[in-house]
């Protein structure tokens, strides 16, 4: 697969790793706008490292990338990102540490027969309604943010905007759509969320 060059970042993509797409580009653009030099940044579901590499190429920040897919971690590491392997926050000890946590999650409603082989399934499979990983992420994320820290979450209209906002509210966050674009039959958006401590 040809390497991707975007906003001064150069990223190679490997087999069984999510290939950056419109969702990755939108999240990277919002992240560069919102992140300031010196912030502590975590990218959950780092994939190839594309979003983190764009951040690192444009800000004085060294994002930490986490993923469940070992092939993704190897790829992100080769692309210059510090990585660790974890199922969401299970392996993370940095409580109250991050200014910003970003996540382009598996957000597509996925039935049994739509699953793909191997680790790559984790890139797409949001469960039957598309929100399983998002719900678990939101139940855990507040403990890892600094007071006043924020989450940048990518979703599609296919994920169910209203239902995602229900999850955000249930976990005592306030959320606002901070970027939105249309792509064929879906709307793509990034939601910024702050915890109501
Ligand atoms: C849609 S891809 C996004 C990849 C990359 N951030 C990007 O925007 O190009 C979702 C990523 O989340 C990872 N992921 C899914 N479930 C996860 C979990 N429970 N814990 C950690 N990572 C997970 C997948 O392996 C995949 O790399």
Automatic annotation (TrEMBL):
Q: What is the superkingdom listed in this entry's lineage?
A: Archaea
Q: Which residues form the Methyltransferase small domain?
A: 37-109
Gene3D superfamilies from the xrefs? Vaccinia Virus protein VP39 (3.40.50.150)
One Gene Ontology cellular component:
eRF1 methyltransferase complex
Single Gene Ontology BP annotation: methylation
- UniProt keyword annotations, A-Z: Methyltransferase, S-adenosyl-L-methionine, Transferase
Protein name, UniProt field = Modification methylase HemK
Protein species of origin: Methanohalophilus halophilus
């Amino acid at each position: 697969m040809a390497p991707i060059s975007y906003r001064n970042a150069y990223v190679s993509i490997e087999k069984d790793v999510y290939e950056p797409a419109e969702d990755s580009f939108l999240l990277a653009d919002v992240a560069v706008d919102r992140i300031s030099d010196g912030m502590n940044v975590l990218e959950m579901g780092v994939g190839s490292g594309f979003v983190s590499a764009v951040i690192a190429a444009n800000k004085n920040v060294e994002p930490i990338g986490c993923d469940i897919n070992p092939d993704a971690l190897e790829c992100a590491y080769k692309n210059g990102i510090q990585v660790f392997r974890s199922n969401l926050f299970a392996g993370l000890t940095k409580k109250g540490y991050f200014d910003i946590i970003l996540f382009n999650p598996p957000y597509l409603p996925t039935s049994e027969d739509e699953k793909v082989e191997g680790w790559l399934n984790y890139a797409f499979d949001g469960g039957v309604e598309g929100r399983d990983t998002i719900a678990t992420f939101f139940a855990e994320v507040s403990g890892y943010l600094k007071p006043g820290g924020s989450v940048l979450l990518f979703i599609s209209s296919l994920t169910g905007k209203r239902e995602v906002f229900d999850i955000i509210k249930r976990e005592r966050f306030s959320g606002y759509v901070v970027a939105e674009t249309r792509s064929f039959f879906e709307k793509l958006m990034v939601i910024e969320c702050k915890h109501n401590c």
